[in-house]
Amino acid sequence: MSRSTPPARVRVVQDAPLRPTGDFVLYWMIATRRTTSNFALDRAVEHAAALKKPIVVLEPLRAGYRWRSDRIDTTLVAGMSDNARRFAGEPVAYYPYVEPEAGAGQGLLAALAERACVVITDDFPCIFLPRMVRAAGEQLSVRLEAVDSNGIVPMRSTPDAFPTAYSFRRYLHRNLSPYLGEAPYARQRVAGVAPRIELPPAVVKRWPLASLESVPPRGATAAQQTLVDFLARLDRYGDDRNSPENDATSGLSSALHFGHISPHEIFHELADQEDWTPDDLADTVKGNRAGWWGMSESAEGFLDQLITWRELGYNMCVHRPDDYDRYESLPSWAQVTLEAHAGDEREFVYTLEQFDTAQTHDPIWNAAQTQLRREGRIHNYLRMLWGKKILEWTASPRDALAVMIELNNKYALDGRNPNSYSGIFWCLGRYDRAWGPERPIFGKIRYMSSDNTRRKYKLKSYLEAYSS
Ligand SMILES: Cc1cc2nc3c(=O)[nH]c(=O)nc-3n(C[C@H](O)[C@H](O)[C@H](O)COP(=O)(O)OP(=O)(O)OC[C@H]3O[C@@H](n4cnc5c(N)ncnc54)[C@H](O)[C@@H]3O)c2cc1C
Question: Residue 275 is part of which domain span?
């Protein structure tokens, strides 16, 4: 039985009528880079089945975007290789395209769209993607729909940007449960579409398909294995998630960022493991972190990160597209207190270059930065400390913000995501409250110290592993 894509997930970018004389339905895959649990692909299938047309999936990788790195490109290309394998044998003409130099891919989307009945793309609310989709909508004459596969709750169904995790959690407790039953298809499903077509030869000649034969497929397959491994150690999450030396968290943030895994898939696998049914949900709404789901403590702690905190970031980007990444978006209490302490004397002030190359006086900070450069990740607890210290060791909070954004987005595999901005701005007071005692530089912003971290957690092997 087929079901239709929830309307709250579909945003019409170019409101042209469907073109039934077109040759195919085009899915321009730019964020939800997977073949299952993908509302945009489901939407493309829906159109193709109704129009009795085949599907073309164009998955491009641009060159020359800000913060591009070999690490990101390698991850994306390995994901394409996985998608190519998964689409093989399906009635889908998969078109992976890796732009050899900036600008070379210009015209490819338009050349395919010219022959399409409708173009479907992903609705991702952050970095250059919203601009790129808007520009495509202005240029194309065919209907263009952007589909939201980002979270359990359709991001545009929320009424406004929530100021705290607590207020968002309360909202979720009231509104989330109907969405749990509205998942995208978990298995590859292209039923009812016309047989696969050859990609237009003139287009392929000008914009050759990426050659993926020698690229080991990772992407969705690797992400699913990461999920399986995490679920096997889920019971450690509750106690150990903050400890840098215990590998207790899921490690799924980059797979989520690249769209290699879906939050629905993660949620449903977890719920199955917990033998959970919607009847287990608590009746009362208190906005508490634990006790609402009716699952184990570890599972509830994890879902609070995966759903409350993760979707809070998307909520901010979608409702404040013009300033989610700007200093002025900080709550006013935070701006006032940071301003009041802007002139405080700083014992250490480092340049971007010194931060980048892990040349501070603090071995814990340097180890975290070394891990970030080397592996593209930092453990969450140390990531908070990492950001707080940048605030302490830069000439102004605006400089701190710029350094955090630059290093996080340049090196972190999960960077350039709504949660990059949640985490970075959290260090400066977003989603937080005023804390006492008032301190130099920080004012009423929550303070963190390396000494405290050292007292709380074992760090010996971490420091050895990441000494620069
Ligand atoms: C300064 C700073 C920068 C950050 N930059 C990023 C970033 O670029 N990209 C990113 O995805 N997260 C970022 N975070 C949030 C958090 O550190 C990571 O999401 C988390 O460490 C990822 O590890 P995990 O997948 O093992 O998390 P788990 O604990 O297993 O959590 C599961 C999922 O929940 C989400 N999540 C977990 N913690 C948070 C959080 N605090 N805020 C929002 N979502 C969360 C992530 O999608 C994560 O994969 C940042 C935090 C800070 C303090």
Answer: 219-319
